[in-house]
Amino acid sequence: MNQHHLRVIYRLIIVLLIFITLYCFLLLKPIWKPIFTTAMIGLLPFLLSGLIAYLLHPLVGKLESLGMKRYVAILLIYLLFFGSTGYAIYLGVPMVIKQMKEFSEQLPIFTGHYREWIHQVEASTSSFPEGIQMQIDERINDVEEWFNKLIEKTSKAIMDLFDFLFILLVVPFLSFYMLKDLDVIKRACWYMTPKKWRRNGVLFLDAVNESLGGYIRGQILVCAIIGVAAAITFGIIGIRYPILLGIIIAITNVIPYFGPLIGAFPVVAIALMSSVKLAIIAGVIVFVLQFIEGNILSPYIVGKSLHMHPLFIIAALIIGGEAFGIIGMIVSVPILAIIKIAIIHSRDHLIRTRQS
């Protein structure tokens, strides 16, 4: 057996071991998930503050390079960012809360209508052969069970969001100090890192920043544009809860491939309560917005892709969704990009080590 065949077998074994590890990881989900959830609740303000500081840092650096003192640049960008965000929240939160309240009050009516529709479908297929009828009944029961779980999870997620509001109040203060003391934080990390890892660590972080920096900032801007456009359009055509649905469209738009379908489902479901025509129009609007996002906004705002094969992205989305739900699907692609950069960086480091 030649060297080429050995390398192929070696790579297949590595891939198999990775999948076995991931499978075991998912099997142990009941053990590690409560611990991970508790840790994430405590770390959430720091992670959000770090993300905001990371997003605003290039603007601060740009103003500083133009001759403005750093603390003045930070204060200006900070006030503009949180001022505009606070004003948007001031205007939007009362409407969102109102629509959430209306939605929760209408939830039993929605579920009643869809259960009635499911039973009508079940009754209309009662004359089918017994084997086919059994399969149809099982699929209908599965759909009904899935829909009930979806409604339950949605309601719980809305309630959990309000539980986090008090925790999130500290985010503006943390992000301000992170921006202000960013150089101090960098020096602390530099001195805490072993000397032999420092140079490679800097190269790795530079590669991650180059790959993910523009992608994350661009995605946030694109999702905000799509969410606002969706909310305005839904309001114009008369769909209920347009702001709430716009937020859902904006959040799910981050998820590649599956995001548009996940975001379209509640829009079409709510529009269907008014009329089939409105549901079709809503579906067409979501499709047009996704076409604009994919062919106009993302190429110009997000720029270059992360250069990952769709199969790896889909696998990451499935694993992330299975482990952490929607949040897992949102963060799975950036995490996959970091893993890819780490593997390439490690490979290049090993090659340089062997050559030297």
TrEMBL record:
Membrane topology (UniProt): Multi-pass membrane protein
InterPro entries assigned: AI-2E-like
Main location: membrane
GO biological process, one term: transmembrane transport
Pfam families per record: AI-2E_transport
GO cellular component term, pick one: membrane
Segments traversing the membrane: 6-28, 35-56, 71-93, 157-178, 214-234, 241-259, 265-289, 326-344
Record key words, sorted: Membrane, Transmembrane, Transmembrane helix
Coiled-coil spans in chain: none
Localization terms from the record: Membrane
Family indicated by similarity: Belongs to the autoinducer-2 exporter (AI-2E) (TC 2.A.86) family.
Record's protein name: AI-2E family transporter
